[in-house]
Every structure is written in structure tokens, then in C-alpha cells.
């Protein structure tokens, strides 16, 4: 399996301080990589850098072998989708929320309807397409947010703790449904979570970031069995 993302000697600074350092990281086509680490470790900074929402001080992020800094910004943005902790839905119906990105891209009505039907069904919200965003529960809103991301058919899906704002039973069901979907959809996905069980359930591999530095990458079982250093071992103990 070839690499979709390659990161080399990356340094990202925020507020004048080093926020993230990654010497080397490869993310393969069709894999799900779970990013774990303490609060403030730099996990979300990695997603923002991958989305070109924050600039790096130095180093390189390659997308299919091409530096993202050299790619047309709109062209690159159309290759990715970002799911935030807060669903950030517009004050309109579920149907229109899911279709919003396609509308901005000028997708024709027939294709838009086909895609909205497919992904609303996949995320279990087809029965509430006519409901307005303000009438949704937290779990329903996040399902709509996920459908809105998948409907764009991104090559790279970035997810920043998408289940942290919902109650535990809803969270467990969302995670189960998303894990099942990704196992069939095979879309390159990077998901940030502070929950080791979630990372193990959804990720093909896991990356541990501590104090702004990528410490270890590997299968969750391998990392738990052989932590790279004391900081990783101590972090895993706390979970």
C-alpha cells in the first residue's frame, strides 16, 4: 500500500512556541490512523497542519508525493474533509446541511441527490432529512456532520474528537457505526481521540503525541506491549 501522506522534519509553532515536531510519519492510502496523547499535546495541531489551516515553521507534508505547500489551495481543500468536535451545522434542514459542500462545488442536482441519499442512509439520518439542525440531538447532529464530510468523497478525512460531546451510549454506537463504515469504505482517515479503547477499535495504527512530539507509531497492541519510552508508558498507564 502506497503512502497518501508523508511528513518530513515538520515543526509547527503556535504563539511563538514549538507546538508540534514530527521527524517522519507516513500514512498509507486507505488506512485509519488514530492519534492519541494528553490534552494540549499537539494532536489537533497536526490536523490543522494537514488541512493547511496552520503553517509549519519548516519541514514538509507531501500528499501523493507532492508538497501541499505547492498545491493550489482550493484544489487541495477539495481532496479533504474535516469533522470537528462541534458539528457546526447551519440553520437549515438536515438535507441541505449534507448537500451544502456539493452546492458550493456546483455539483448538479441529480448527482447531489444520489450522494445525499447514499450518505444519509449510511449514517442513519435518512428519516430526518427534513428536520432543521436546531431540532437535532447531539448524536444526530454529529451523524449529519459525518454525512456532510463523506458526501464530498474526500481522499483524506480528518476527524478531531468527533464523539467527545455526546453521551457514552451514543458515543459507543457512533464509534461502532463509523468503524464498520470505514472497514468497508477504505478511506484514508486520521482521527484524534484521547480514548485508547476508541483508538484500538477504529485505528489500523495508532500514533502517540506527547509534549508536541511524535513519540511512537504502530499497531495499538504493539504500542501497549512495547512503549517507546517512559513518557509513552506513563501516558498509557493513565488511560
Give a written overview of the molecule.
This protein has helices spanning 43-50, 73-77, 94-104, 109-122, 138-150, 168-185, 196-202, 220-225, 230-238, and strands at 3-14, 17-28, 32-36, 58-63, 66-67, 80-83, 156-160, 188-192, 205-210, 213-218. A hairpin with a 2-residue loop joins strand 1 and strand 2 (17-28). The two termini are 31 Å apart. It has 9 helices and 10 strands. It is globular. Helix 4 crosses helix 5 (138-150). A 6-stranded mixed β-sheet has the order 6-7-8-3-9-10, sandwiched between helices. The chain has a 4-stranded antiparallel β-sheet with strand order 2-1-4-5, covered by helices on one side. The chain has 239 residues and is an alpha/beta fold.
List keywords for this structure.
239 residues, alpha/beta, 6-stranded mixed beta sheet, 4-stranded antiparallel beta sheet, 9 helices, 10 strands, 38% helix, 26% strand, globular
Amino acid at each position: 500500500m502506497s503512502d497518501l501522506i508523508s511528513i518530513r522534519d515538520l515543526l509547527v509553532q503556535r504563539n511563538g512556541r514549538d507546538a508540534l515536531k514530527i521527524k517522519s510519519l507516513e500514512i498509507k492510502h486507505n488506512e485509519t490512523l488514530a492519534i492519541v496523547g494528553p490534552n494540549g499535546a499537539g494532536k489537533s495541531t497536526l490536523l490543522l497542519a494537514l488541512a493547511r489551516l496552520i503553517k509549519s515553521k519548516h519541514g514538509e507534508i507531501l500528499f501523493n508525493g507532492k508538497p501541499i505547500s505547492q498545491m493550489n489551495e482550493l484544489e487541495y481543500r477539495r481532496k479533504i474533509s474535516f469533522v470537528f468536535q462541534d458539528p457546526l451545522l447551519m440553520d437549515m434542514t438536515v438535507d441541505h446541511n449534507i448537500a451544502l459542500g456539493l452546492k458550493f462545488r456546483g455539483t448538479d442536482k441529480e448527482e447531489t441527490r444520489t450522494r445525499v441519499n447514499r450518505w444519509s442512509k449510511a449514517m442513519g439520518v435518512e428519516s430526518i432529512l427534513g428536520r432543521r439542525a436546531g431540532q437535532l440531538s447531539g448524536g444526530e447532529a454529529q451523524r449529519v456532520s459525518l454525512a456532510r464530510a463523506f458526501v464530498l468523497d474526500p481522499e483524506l478525512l480528518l476527524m478531531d474528537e468527533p464523539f467527545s460531546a455526546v453521551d457514552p451510549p451514543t458515543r459507543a454506537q457512533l464509534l461502532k457505526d463509523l468503524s464498520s463504515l470505514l472497514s468497508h469504505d477504505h478511506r484514508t482517515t486520521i482521527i484524534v481521540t484521547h480514548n485508547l479503547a476508541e483508538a484500538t477499535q477504529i485505528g489500523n495504527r495508532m500514533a502517540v503525541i506527547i509534549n508536541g512530539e511524535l513519540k511512537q507509531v504502530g499497531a495499538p497492541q504493539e504500542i501497549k506491549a512495547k512503549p517507546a519510552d517512559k513518557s509513552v508508558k506513563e501516558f498509557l498507564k493513565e488511560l
